[in-house]
Prior knowledge:
CATH class of the largest domain: Alpha Beta
Low-confidence stretches: 139-156
CATH architecture of the largest domain: 3-Layer(aba) Sandwich
Number of domains: 2
Number of helices: 13
Number of strands: 13
Helix content: 25-40%
Order of helices and strands: EEEHEHHEHHEHHEEEHEHHHEHHEE
Strand content: 15-25%
Mean pLDDT: 88
Shape: globular
Largest sheet: 6 strands, mixed
CATH topology of the largest domain: Rossmann fold
Amino acid sequence: MTEHVLVEADGGSRGNPGPAGYGAVVKDAATGEVLAERKAYVGIATNNVAEYSGLIAGLAAAAELGASTVDVRMDSKLVVEQMSGRWKVKHPSMQPLNAEAKELAARFSRVRYEWIPRAENSHADGLANEAMDAGAAKKPEAPKTVKQDRVSPVGWTGATGTPTKLLLVRHGQTAMSVEKRYSGRGDVPLTEHGKQQAAAAAKRLGAMEGLIVDGEAAPIIASPLIRTQQTAQAIADALGGRVETHPGLIETDFGDWEGLTFTEAMERDPEFQTSWLSDTSIAAPGGESFDGVHRRVRKARDELIAKYGGRTLVLVSHVTPIKALLRMGLDAGPSLLFRLHLDLASLSIVEFYPDGNASVRLVNDISHLS
C-alpha cells in the first residue's frame, strides 16, 4: 500500500461537445512509479465533463490502492479551481460531477490540487486520446443505436445527448433470501420460486420496446454469481441474446457475517454491527464496506458506458450494486442505501447522459410478479 500518491488526470472532447474520453495516472509520490492507469471513452460530451471524469477515475484508483494523501495535477484550470473551492460550480451539468469528485476526495486525509501546463500532463493526455481513438473506431455501430427508443433531452433537467439506459434487475429468490441471511459472495442458486420470478422478469423485458434492434438483443450483463447468471439467462432466452459477466456487479462481501441472519450477526458483534449500520466506510469483519462497493460499481458503470454508450443495457445484479447505481442517478448520499427497498426480481431504470446529468425512471417495480 502506498500512502502518498500523485494523480495526473486529463480529458478531451473533439468538438466540445463531441467524442470525448479521459485518462488518469496514479503514481507513487516518492518514486514516480506508475501504480495505476485509467482511460475510457465517455461518448459525446464537453471537455469539462471529460476532465471531471478523468479526475473521478484517478481518485477512485487512488482509493483502491489504499492511499491516504493525494496530490492532483491537471491542466484544467476550471476543475482545479472548482475542486479547490475558489470558483463556484455554476453549470448544472458540472454540479453532479463536482459532487461525486468531492465525495471521493473526502475519503482521503488530504487532497491537494495543482494546475500544470498541458506539456507536463502528457501521460494522462495520451491515455485520453487513446480512449477517444477507441471510441471513434466504434462509429460504424452508431446507426444501430439511433433507432432505439431513447428519448430526447429530459425537459426541465436540461440533460442533453443520447443517454445510456440501464435496466436494473435484481436476481430471483434463493434459500438464503428466504431465511433472510447475509448473502454476499456465497454462490447459491435460485429456488424453484426464484426461477419463476426470473421467468416473469424475462417475460416483462421481452415485451419492452427498444431491447431488440435490427434483430439484435440489447447487451445483458450480470454479476458472476449463479443466482444472477440464472436470472440473466432467463432474460437472454426471452430476448434471444447472450449473457456477459462483469465482476464489478457482484454483491457486497459480507465477510464473517456471510450466511448469518441479522440477529445472529448482532449477537456476535453487537457494537461493531451498530457502527457498520451507521457508517458506510466501515467494512464487515473480513469483508467490504459499502463505500468500497460504491467505488467498484461506479467504475463498472464507467466501463460499460465507455463500451456501450448511448445504448440500452440490461444489468442483472444484487441489492447493493443496484442501489449504488440508483444513488448515482439521484446524486444522493449514502443514507439512500438504508432507506431504499428493492424486492427480489424487481426492475429499476436509470439513464446516464453524456453531459453528466442522469434520470431515474423507475424504482423497484414488481408488477410482473403479481
